[in-house]
């Protein structure tokens, strides 16, 4: 009995100490005179109404308590404080003007146990700087023009695949079809492999893609743990990539490289660039000369992240475009007319130059990204203490900074009637009038902006042209208006985009 009493007293003491520790941590923003949302023990602000909240809900609630005198608000993940930027001018400081204070993302990676996680998006410090310099020449306009015929070839197959996927009532849930299209584009352009997922929905690359996004390796609470306690997570050998996915990409990449090197195959594609980096044959981004070799694991991680970011974000974006064109038939007709007019000027051929001449289509895609940004927030990490301009506040070294992309792009003070789909916001005559600079952040900004944005936009535009030339999209009984979204996914993803399809 005495032992039980002793154990009980130790347990009560331990719980009390933990509670007091959290209580002390939860006074961080109050002590510094920063507006904040009252945290809940032990979750901080990640629990609302008794359950784990989505990031969108967490950010939205914090944004409502902003004050004009301070350009950020404070929040907590568990007992760890973080900054939510609430002012666009301050966002520009974080992303561009004072980038040297915020060059890290603070994303979790585990190079030893999970080499695919150590990619360009996640790496920080000198490793990121060197790798960014190596990868910068990858997606230049010249490279895009060279890859264009391959993208066009896959897009032509997309049109036929859509017709074969229609149900008896000419309805279509379009997300999976588009994911298969982008899988084939990326598989061909990045890996030099014919994936054939448009003709075979169960093709190997597509199965891996579904596994990545439909069966995440870590639950949300454990993903949060890796971000808050990265060093401990590495000691615990926590991996963000499943063994199934890791083995697949390592095998595919090894087989591709061995085949190309043994047969002296050269293609002016992404894989060729990676092989040059592996062999130390690359040139510096400034043309100054070689900048060193990448290991096999390093190039595997870069191929993986471009697959990861390339097909899911692009598929979601194109789904959103088609949804909005289905809702707004007048805009759809205007886009289609531009497509036919431009193609007529280019002898009926869908060329790289013709795509660049489709300015209204650009506006439609940009407005879609404004309304549905693939990544709803950007994250940076302070690498040293930062004095916040025009205040007496300090953002301390190690602090995570969230920039609420979706919230900014839906703020009526920045974009009037934000729920209205209006491509004319981005016309050459009106773009930027009455809006702060940096009001559009769908691709980030500054030195850590999206390196693959040209490639992503090119494959989306080509896919849309291929479909809109042949089909009109209308409402059907299953169409969701407004759209519903999946929770706890890294990319803003609709639950279902049902379209009625009429062949032109």
UniProtKB/TrEMBL annotation:
Report the membrane topology from the UniProt record.
Peripheral membrane protein
**Chief location category:** endoplasmic reticulum
Highest taxon of the lineage: Eukaryota
PROSITE patterns linked: CYTOCHROME_P450
The cofactor required is:
heme
**The entry's keywords:** Endoplasmic reticulum, Heme, Iron, Membrane, Metal-binding, Microsome, Monooxygenase, Oxidoreductase, Transmembrane, Transmembrane helix
Task: Name the residues that span the membrane.
Answer: 6-22
Choose one Gene Ontology CC annotation of this protein and give it.
endoplasmic reticulum membrane
Detail which positions bind heme. Answer: 450
Q: Name one GO molecular function term.
A: oxidoreductase activity, acting on paired donors, with incorporation or reduction of molecular oxygen
Family annotation (Gene3D superfamilies): Cytochrome P450
**Localization per record:** Endoplasmic reticulum membrane; Microsome membrane
What CDD domains does the record tag this protein with?
CYP6-like
Pfam families hit by this protein: p450 (PF00067)
Function field: May be involved in the metabolism of insect hormones and in the breakdown of synthetic insecticides.
**Similarity field:** Belongs to the cytochrome P450 family.
| Protein name from the UniProt record | Cytochrome P450
Q: Which organism is it from?
A: Hermetia illucens (Black soldier fly)
